[in-house]
Design goal:
This protein has 348 residues and is mostly helical. Helices cover 47% and strands 6% of the residues. It is elongated, with a radius of gyration of 26 Å.
Amino acid sequence: MAMKYKSSDSRKVPAQPPQWNQFLICSVCENEFNRTDRCPISLGCGHTVCRGCLGDLKHPQCQFDQNSITCDISDLPVNSALLLLVPEEESHKGSVEMRGVSQKGKENFHPGNIAQCVKLYDKSKKHIEELALLLRPNKGNELSRPMQRKLVALINCQLVEEEGRKRALRAGRALGERSATELILLHQNPTTLSASLWAAVRARGCQFLGPAMQEEALKLIHFTFEDGSDSSELSRKVLVQLVVKNLKTQFAQASKTSIGHVVQLLYRASCFKVTKREGNSSLMRLKDEFLSYEELRREHDAQIVEIAREAGLRIAPDQWSALLYGDQSHKSYMQSIIDRLASKSSFT
C-alpha cells in the first residue's frame, strides 16, 4: 500500500540538518536512529531521516533543500549501512525487516535491463555496508576526518532514485581521490616536501620567511593599514620600507626584497584595494574584510595552501601547522582552510 502524506507537518524542522559527524541522528527530529520506529531512510539529496519523520512529510520533498522525492516513500529502502552503526543498546529494542528493491522501486532502474540493475544495486549496497563498518570506533585504525566525512557522504546516498545514484558516484570518486591523497601523504619525505613547497612559493614571486619572521611581517603590514581609511593608503615601495625598518630591530636579515615578496603573496591573495594614479605609483590599502589580523592571516595561509595545490603537493594539517607556525597547535585551523579550498572543487 502506498504511503500517504499527512496534511500538515507534526514536527518542527531544525533550521539546519545535523553536522556531518552526527550521522546516526535523524535530520528532522534529531533523535538517534533505531531498528523500529526510527530506522534510517536516505533521500536522493543525501539527507537521512527516520521512518517516523518520513511518514509525517507534508509534501514529497526533502524538508531542508526541497528536492523532490521521485518515488513513493514506501518504496525507499532502509539505509542498512547506517543501521549497522546503530549502538548495540538500540539494536536490541527490535528489528526492522530488511528487504530488497520493491517492484515499484525497480521502475527507477533502466527499463532495458532491470535484472542486471537489481544485481548491481545489491552488490553496491553490500560494498557500502562493508565500508560503513570503518566508521565504528576502532583504536589504532581510525580514519582521518576528511576520510570520515567523505565516507559518511557515500553512506547517506540512496541508490533507488537516479539522483541518489549520481550522488553516490560523486561521493565514491571523492573518497577514492582522498584515499590516494592520504597514501601520498603517508609516504612523502618531509624534507623534500618542505623544499618543494617553498620552491613553488618562490616561483610565483612570493616568499615565506619562517614562522616567526613571517608573522611579525604580517602584523606590521596589518598595523600600517589598521584604521582602513583612505589616508592610510601607501605605495608598495613605502609599505616595504616601513616594514623593513621596524622588522630589522628583531630580524637583522630583513630586506626590501624579502618583504616585497611577502607583500606580493598578499597581493596575489587579493587582500589589497589598489588605487591607480596616472604618472605615479599605485596606492594600496587592505580591503575591509581583511582589517582583522585573523582574517588577513587566514587569507595569507589559504594562499600558500592554494599554491601547494597548484603545484600538485599534498600536505597534511599537522605538517602545515609545523611549516607555517612551527608547532602542532594549528592543526584544526589548517584543516578548516583545506576543507574550504577543497569544497570549491569537491564532488560532494
